[in-house]
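Protein in question reproduced for absentees:

***
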Amino acid sequence: MSNVFENDSPSNLTEYSVSELSGSIKRTVETAFDQVRVRGEISGYRGPHSSGHAYFALKDDRARIDAVIWKGTFSKLKFRPEEGMEVIATGKVTTFPGSSKYQIVIETLEPAGAGALMALIEERKRRLGAEGLFDAARKRRLPFMPKVIGVVTSPTGAVIRDILHRISDRFPVHVIVWPVKVQGEGSGEEVASAIRGFNSFAPDGQMPRPDVLIVARGGGSLEDLWSFNDEAVVRAAADSQIPLISAVGHETDWTLIDYAADVRAPTPTGAAEMAVPVKAELEAQTAGLTARLQGCMNRRMDHHRQSVRALMRALPSLDQLLALPRRRFDEAAAGLGRGLELNTINKRRSFERTAAHLRPDVLSNRIGERRQMLAERIGRAERTIERLIDRSKSRVGRADAVFGSLPARLKSQTARMRDHLGNLSRHADTAVRHKLARARGELVAQDRVLQSLSYMNVLKRGYAVIRDDEHRPVSQAAMLSSGMGISIQFADGEVGAVTTDGGGPPAGRKRASKPSEPGSPPKQGSLF
């Protein structure tokens, strides 16, 4: 009996397997906490996993619960969770049987009031400001008249239409729009990429580089404008080499990009007004400056004109300036004739004095002296030549004696060199004759060309050259007058003639019968 009682079960409880118990707990928890709202501080958040899911924990000062956001839900969140942010999570509680843990599967996530977001913004503003991203020294002045404006905004909203309309009204310029999302997941990365993309344009590239950037978005709640508080957007705005205008929200809305931008505009329309001037005002200002410049030039010209007139009155007249030179010229002209006469008389006297010393006997004596001197020099030259010849003969004799005693081989070598020298001499004579023949041929060819271009060949064809009494060629009949003596040159000679009014020769005039010799000077016939 004792054995029977020892094997009996001590309790009538239902026996469960581990899986059954875990599944029962899971169903019970999910049924009891189907939809809950939990307020807590995000802890252990390291960003989304490689699978796209996000794992972290919610905690307060006494407890902690694991949380998960699935990939599909994470992409629909209005803002990303961040470490230390106090949030209100809505979802359902479930268990994870594999490790006996429970967790909340978050479906929506919102900050725990505006105060939490503002505290996060203030902390981020303080940290980025400590890095110098908001310093006034980093900010650049906007260009006065940009040629290209880059706009980073949504292409479907009313903001881009307001900006384009305002720019078109004030000063139409080239506008490049970089379309981005301005709200929701990934909007911050798109805005930062657009700012960096505009800065990467080459100044002389195919796409023109903007002179100023406008980052714009319409008004909204703090959550709607959260993308422009993103750290990536703030850093991209601070690093932009192109001057940047922040136009996010209304005048009362402030985001961190406003502190990093070079200029903050209260509205997108105000950003367009800051970017470009008013063309009509510039034209009016230019017209006013032009009028002032024209008036200043007129007054300046009047002043210079008066100064020139005053100087003209102070200057002497042209007659006064030329009076003294004219007098000097007249005096010089009056004394010129007398000076020429005196100079001629002085020259004649000097010539007569010199000629008085040139008598025939003096010239004969000087010629005799020069002849005697020349004869003496010739005699000395002859004697010098005789001594040189004698000295050369003696040297040749000594050389013959020396050469006579040289060996036969040296004599034969000397004979060969003498033969070689004779051959070179003959070749040199032949080369000189050929050179002279070529030069003679070239000279004959040049003479032939000269003869072909000579006007004497034209005279041989029956033409003649008429020259006036000063032996100048006559090319027109108007250059001659009646009774003028002329000479007519033919191919075989030249004759003289006298011009008349008629076509025949003058009465009593004999025609020249004998041509002049070639090369002799032209002869003028006698008129008497």
User: Anything to note?
Assistant: Residues 408-453 form the longest helix (46 residues).
